[in-house]
Design a protein that fits this description.
Largest sheet: 7 strands, mixed
Strand content: 15-25%
Distance between the termini: 25 Å
Number of helices: 10
CATH architecture: 3-Layer(aba) Sandwich
Structural class: alpha/beta
Number of strands: 7
CATH topology: Rossmann fold
Strand order of the largest sheet: 1-3-2-4-5-6-7
Radius of gyration: 17 Å
Order of helices and strands: HEEHHEHHEHEHHEHEH
Length: 242
């Protein structure tokens, strides 16, 4: 599903403003910084996992927190690319375009058959946003961990409607929040895995999104908005992906 670039601009400006307080803004570069971790140095894998950081994190957090090693243990045939798509790219409204031009399209040209996008918090939101706005046909699926899915007003409206499947957009929330939920409600072509900590501050929106995702692909764990929970979630989800 493709939304207008107007939605894209509004979405990223508002999201950046809402999260800036907890994430210092960094300058952007002409190309998204990338760190590659091939499964085999002699040949390309058929599958690529694209890791996107949360609002407070740098791309190297995936290596420091042991996530890259975890992927190597659980999906040893997957190549991994860590993309330092920090808040600055969202604020400058270049995230979707840069991810498409710098990462996704080159990966397709290199011959990757399956491309997965994953990340916690802002990274999970980014994976879903790309599925709504980018060249989603090139993406096999998204593993979204505790994604940001809107503020109190839009979530209350969806709850009052009986859930996202029965919800019709009204006046609640911001334009980008309504448009994102319309995209999610109408369904994505990609496979979605969703996980969050039961005491995570994003749990309310995640529980609503779970109503639109295959129940076998929704995983929760005790805990809050932190790396230890996200590692547990990846450890559960990754081996279950064929």
């Amino acid at each position: 599903m493709n939304f207008s670039r107007g939605f894209f601009r509004v979405a990223l400006v508002v999201l950046a403003l809402s999260l800036t307080a907890c994430a210092g803004l960094r300058t952007t570069e002409d190309q998204l910084p990338q760190s590659w971790f091939p499964a085999d140095s002699d040949q390309r894998s058929a599958t690529l996992l694209v890791l996107l950081p949360g609002a407070r994190d740098r791309g190297d957090g995936f290596e420091r927190q042991g996530v890259v090693d975890l992927v190597g243990q659980l999906q040893p045939d997957w190549d991994v690319v860590v993309v330092d798509a920090h808040m600055g790219y969202y604020r400058e409204r270049s995230f979707v375009e840069r991810l498409e031009v710098d990462v996704i399209h080159p990966a397709v040209e290199q011959g990757y058959r399956d491309i997965w996008i994953s990340g916690p918090s802002l990274g999970g939101f980014g994976g879903l946003l790309y599925s709504c706005l980018g060249d989603a046909e090139s993406v096999t699926g998204v593993i979204a961990l505790a994604p940001h899915l809107g503020g109190r007003a839009i979530l209350s409206e969806i709850e009052d409607a009986g859930g996202p499947a029965d919800w019709q957009p009204g006046d609640a929330g911001r334009d980008f929040e309504r448009d994102l939920w319309v995209c999610l409600r109408d369904g994505l072509d990609q496979t979605i895995w969703l996980g969050w900590g039961e005491s995570d501050r994003m749990a309310r929106g995640n529980r609503l999104l779970a109503e639109l995702v295959d129940s076998d692909q929704v995983i929760t764990r005790p805990g809050g908005h932190r790396w230890s929970v996200w590692r547990d979630l990846w450890e559960e989800i990754l081996p279950r992906i064929d």
